[in-house]
Amino acid sequence: MSIKKTSLFGTATTAALAVTLTACGGGSGGAGASGGSYDKDATVNIGSLYEPQNLDNTAGGGQGVTEVLNGNVYEGLFRLTDDGKVEKLLAQDYKVSGDGLTYTFTLRDGVKFHSGKTLTSEDVKYSLEKVLADDSQSARKSNLEVVKDIATPDARTVKVTLSQKSISFVYNLSYVWIINSEAKNLKTTEDGTGPYELNKWTRGSALSLDRFSGYWGDAAANKQVVFHYYKDATALNNALLTNAVDVVTSEQSPDALDQFKNNQNYKVNDGNSTTKLLLAFNDRAKPFTDAKVRQAVSSAIDDKKLLESVWGGYGKLIGSMVPPTDPWYEDLTGVNAYDVARAKKLLKEAGYEDGFTFTLDTPNYDPHPTAATFIKSQLAKVGITVKINTITADEWYTKVYKNRDFTATLQEHVNDRDLVWYGNPDFYWGYDNKQVTKWVEQAEQASSTAEQTELLKKVNRKTAEDAASDWLYLYPQIVVANSKLSGYPLNGLNSQFFAYDIKKKG
C-alpha cells in the first residue's frame, strides 16, 4: 500500500502483464514528449508536497522517495511505465521454468552504478535480500517472500527459485531498486544505475539531481531536475505562478485550478489516479468486528458530497479498493451506498440502535482533517459520536500500521492492484475472511490472467459487501505545468514521477 506523505505500504499484486523490451533509458508517457526544439542543458524545477523522510525505500522513506528516486536515480530489473505496462529494464531477458518456480534473468551488459562500479548479479541478489531483510519496511516485502533461493551462476545471470507460483512476480520486481551491494549510508546518499545521480538534498527545501554522464541508456532530456518541497498547496501554486517551479507533480487545491486553466502559459492535465481515500476500520476492534456496523457507517456517509466538497468536479466514486484502471474493476458504488434509513436499520440489527462512540485517528495533512470533520457530522445523524484524534504521519505509522492501536483511521492508499491486502489477515486493518484469503492465494497461483481476474473480481465484490473498509473516493491525478514543458508523466502511478523525458523550451 502506499499512503500519502508517509511510508505508503501499498503494493500492487497484478496479473502477468505483457513485458516488452524497452529502448535504452528514457520512456515515460508525458504530454507532448516529442517534437519541437528544447534546451538540452535546462534545469527543470518540480514542485511537490511530498519530501522524502529518507532516501531508502526499505527504511520508511515514504511516498516522497518513490516520487523523486524511482526510475530517475534507481532502476529495477523491470519498470512500470506511466500507462501501467511492465517493461524490461536492467533485465535484458528472462526465462521461466515449466513449473513456474524458477526465473532466470540475464542482465544488461555495460551498466554502471553512479560510483563507477559495474552492475553484477551479486548486486541484484543483494537488492532482493535487502527488501526481504527482517528490518525492511519495503511495501513489497510480503509479496516477495515467495523467494526461496537466489543464485548467481555468473556476473550477468541471476536465478531465482520460488516456494510457490507467483503470477505477479515479474510485476513485483518492477518495485525493487537495484542498489550497489557495496553502498553505504543509503538514507542520505545513493548509488543507483539511473539517468540521474544525486547532487544535493537540503532537508525541508529541495533535492537536486544531475544528469549522469555514464548512464547506460539514452541520456536524460534535461541536464538537471530540482524537486522543491512545499508545506501546503497554496505555496506550491504560488511557486508555479511565479515560475519558481515549472511543473507540479500532483495538484492538491482544485479551487486554484481556474487561474491556470484560463492562462495560456500553463496546461492542466487530468490523468488516471490509483489513490484511494479510505476510512479504514480495525476489523478486530469492537464495534467494527460486526459487518453490519461497518455497512451502517458506510451507508451513513455521503461520499459524493464529500468528494464535491474536497475536489469540486474532479475525482471519482469507487465503492471498493479497485479503481477503473485495474483489470478486475467492477462498479460497486451501489453496494453500501449512501442511505441514512438503511444505516439506522443496520445499527438497530447490530444492537446499536442508540449509536456508539469511537475515535478516528486522523493524519494531520490535507485532506484528512476536512474529511474527518465531514464524517463526524454525517455519523452524528445516525447517533454515532466520532472523537477525532489528529496525529502526524510518523505517529500514524507507529500507532496504526505497526501497533494496530486504533479503532478507525483515515488514510490514502496510492498503489494500483492492491486489493490483495484484504487477503492478508495480518494487515493493519485486520480483515479476516478465509474465503477471501483463499481466493487471493488462488489468484496469485493462477495459470492465466483471465483466471486471476475472475478470482479477484470475487474478492472485490465480497470485500465491498462486507464493507471491509469504506472507500470514500478515488483521487484525481492533476498535473499542472508551464506550457514550455513537455514529456512529463500524466498518471504518476504509485507516486512515481519520471523526470528524464521532460523537455523545456528555452
| Beta-strand content | 15-25%
Mean pLDDT rating? 91
Portion in helices: 10-25%
How many beta-strand elements? 21
Largest sheet: 7 strands, mixed
Which sequence of strands runs across the widest sheet?
Answer: 9-10-11-2-12-19-13
Which outline best applies? Answer: globular
Summing up helix and strand content along with how strands pair, one would put the structural category as alpha+beta
Give start-end ranges of low-pLDDT stretches: 1-34
Report the total helices: 12
Distance between the termini: 40 Å
Q: In angstroms, what is the radius of gyration?
A: 23 Å
Give a quick summary of the entry:
It contains 12 helices and 21 strands. With 506 residues, it is of the alpha+beta class. It is globular, with a radius of gyration of 23 Å.
Give me some keywords for this one.
single chain, seven-stranded mixed β-sheet, five-stranded mixed β-sheet, 21 strands, globular, disordered N terminus
Please explain how this structure is put together.
By secondary structure, the chain is of the alpha+beta class. 23% of the residues lie in helices and 22% in strands. A hairpin with a 5-residue loop joins strand 5 and strand 6 (102-107). Helix 6 runs antiparallel to helix 8 (340-349) and helix 11 packs antiparallel against helix 12 (449-465).
SSE inventory with pairings:
Blueprint: E1 19-21, E2 43-48, H1 62-69, E3 78-80, E4 86-88, E5 91-96, E6 102-107, H2 121-132, E7 147-154, E8 157-162, H3 169-173, E9 196-202, E10 206-211, E11 224-229, H4 233-241, E12 247-248, H5 258-261, E13 266-271, E14 276-281, H6 291-300, H7 303-311, H8 340-349, E15 357-363, H9 368-380, E16 385-391, H10 393-402, E17 408-413, H11 434-444, H12 449-465, E18 470-474, E19 477-482, E20 485-486, E21 503-504
Parallel strand pairs: 1-4, 2-11, 2-12, 15-16, 15-17
Antiparallel strand pairs: 3-4, 5-6, 6-8, 7-8, 9-10, 10-11, 12-19, 13-19, 14-17, 14-18, 20-21
Helix pairs in contact: 6-8, 11-12
